[in-house]
Amino acid sequence: MNSQQPNDYLNMPQKPLPNATAVLVLGIISIVVCSICGIIGLVLANQDLRLYNNHPEMYTEGSLSNLKAGRICSIIGVVILGLSILYVICVLLIFGSFSNSFR
Questions:
Q1: What is Dmax (Cα atoms) for the chain?
Q2: Using CA atoms, how far apart are residues 88 and 76, in angstroms rounded to an integer?
Q3: 52 Cα distance to chain centroid
Q4: What is the dihedral sign for C-alpha 16, 19, 21, 27?
């Protein structure tokens, strides 16, 4: 018979979220390099947010803060990546149309 009560995890020490530091690092890298690291960071952040929402008392507030900061950095990195891709496409279309007019 399972003797654990639903509140038994309240007596356990809190632990950090598993991917909080990784999400923060990936978010910062995605801003600096404009890479796909932001998408990976968002996926990991969503997984950890689900963990936290299921049992918030099991995880430290510091790791939640790192997770939120990393998630915001990842979102900014993904937006910058999307804008840079749109810029490259526009430049290619503009120079492509100019090169066709000189032929």
A1: 83
A2: 18
A3: 15
A4: negative
| Alpha carbon distances (Å) from 99 to 11, 77, 90 | 71, 33, 14
Question: What percent of the chain is helix, strand and coil (3-state, nearest 5)?
Answer: 80, 0, 20
Q: Which amino acid is at 12?
A: M
Give, for 50, the enclosing helix (H) or strand (E): helix 37-54
Question: In the structure encoding, which two tokens stand for residue 13, read together?
Answer: 């020490």
The C-alpha atoms of residue 41 and residue 67 are separated, in whole angstroms, by 9
d(CA 67, CA 20): 5
Please answer whether residues 67 and 52 qualify as being in contact, where contact means their C-beta atoms are separated by less than 8 angstroms: yes
Q: What is the pLDDT along the chain (103 residues), one digit of tens a residue?
A: 444 555 556 677 899 999 999 999 999 999 999 889 999 999 999 999 999 999 999 999 999 999 999 999 999 999 999 999 999 999 999 888 777 666 6
Q: What would you report as the CA-atom Rg of the chain, rounded to the nearest whole angstrom?
A: 21
